[in-house]
Write a structure and sequence with these properties.
43% helix, 2 domains, alpha/beta, single chain, Purple Acid Phosphatase, chain A, domain 2
């Protein structure tokens, strides 16, 4: 109920600020109707996600799209009010002066600015929604990243890992979407594939067919998976068994050793940062993931869904951590707020001697929009620190 109340208040705020500012009757009426529909569709889509089937999926599509549109509309309305406040403070919106003529001009000038800025909000929301849907529904482009690792053996120079993360297979992400990702990864011919969590949003019974293309991933050393927080909302233990059945190696606070060109790679993974709250035996533990690893390994790589696992990864002695979770914010301007919950938002960062790469995600969650935070299939190439990137 508190969430529904907040949603209602936000819709009322947008309505009171924009509807009276628009001229005529058609535009204000259509906006009011859309706000009413949005107020119904958004909560309905969250309730619909608990069900399954085509009707529930369509309801999720409609409600999640409405949520994305309202996000853009609400933020731009707030920015509009900021601009109007500044304009008023600078005298650009004339104050009413003595005399009928001056008063009429002042009111007319203010009304023009109010209407023009309201139309600007609607225009930005419309164009942003169109660009956001295209950005979310396209197949994620490949982003190539070189990471220079101190002391990397020559045999591992050029070792590649294709990372996919945060696909969120569920009501709006289906089998065809997953198949396009698999096809793109296979064209990279990586040495290994890393799936760093939040692969699914739903139960195995509902999504088994949609994730089936993952069995077709091809690489020299295989595909490795670690859980994200959304796996624990969807029955993590059942998903672990299902993904192992597809040929993925699930790493729950453990590692495997890969022999590559005469050198050894420790490929390790931790359960999601929050996993212990759902399955006590899955409590995230980077030390356990490193335990027993060979001291002469040329590369120690940790897969961890959330970037905030980095402190533990650094203490455990890993060289590199690959993460996701943040989506880079997914829809502008929410990327600016990720830093209040995670140490890194997107891209390559360093914590001591540990490199941390945070992917913006290969799919999307909730609203089928991406704006200002493009999706990616990441091709990470490890190079010797004294060699130049290509």
């Amino acid at each position: 109920m508190p969430v529904l109340l907040i949603l209602l208040l936000l819709h009322l705020y947008v309505g009171f600020r924009l509807v009276p500012a628009l001229p005529g009757m058609v535009a204000p009426g259509l906006l009011a109707l859309w706000l009413l529909a949005s107020l119904v569709l958004i909560p309905a889509s969250f309730f619909g996600r608990r069900a399954s089937g085509p009707v529930a999926d369509r309801l999720s599509w409609a409600g999640m799209l409405a949520l994305g549109v309202f996000s853009l509309l609400g933020v731009s309305t707030l920015l509009r009010d900021g601009v109007l406040l500044v304009a008023w403070a600078l005298g650009q919106v004339p104050a009413v002066q003595a005399g009928t003529g001056a008063a009429v001009r002042a009111v007319a000038g203010g009304a023009t600015l109010q209407a023009a800025s309201a139309w600007a909000v609607l225009g930005f929301t419309g164009l942003g929604t169109l660009a956001g849907v295209v950005g979310a529904r396209r197949r994620a482009p490949v982003r190539r990243v070189d990471i220079a690792v101190d002391g990397l053996p020559a045999a591992l120079h050029g070792f590649t890992v294709a990372q996919i993360t945060d696909v969120h297979v569920g009501p709006t992400v289906k089998r065809a979407y997953v198949q396009r990702i698999v096809d793109a990864v296979n064209t990279l011919q990586p040495d290994a594939v890393a799936i760093t969590g939040d692969l699914v949003d739903g139960r195995v019974a509902d999504l088994r067919d949609d994730v089936a293309p993952l069995a077709g991933l091809r690489s020299r050393h295989g595909s490795f998976f670690v859980t994200g927080n959304h796996e624990y909302y969807s029955g993590a233990e059942e998903w672990v068994a299902a993904l192992r059945g597809l040929g993925l190696q699930v790493l729950l606070n453990q590692h495997v050793v890969l022999q590559h060109g005469g050198a050894r790679v420790v490929m390790a993974g931790v359960a999601d940062w929050s996993a212990g709250h759902f399955v006590p035996g899955h409590r995230s533990d980077a030390q356990a993931a490193m335990a027993g690893a060979p001291a002469d390994a040329g590369l120690r790589l940790l897969l961890a869904h959330q970037p905030r696992s980095a402190a533990g990864a650094a203490e455990a002695g890993f060289d590199v951590q690959l993460s996701g979770h943040t989506h880079g914010g997914q829809i502008w301007p929410w990327g600016f707020f990720v830093r209040f919950q995670q140490p890194f938002t997107a891209g390559l960062d360093r914590l001591g001697r540990l490199w941390v790469y945070t992917s913006r995600g290969t799919g999307y969650w909730g609203p089928p929009l991406r704006l200002g935070a493009p999706s990616e299939i990441t091709c990470v190439r490890f190079i010797q620190s004294n060699r130049e990137p290509q």
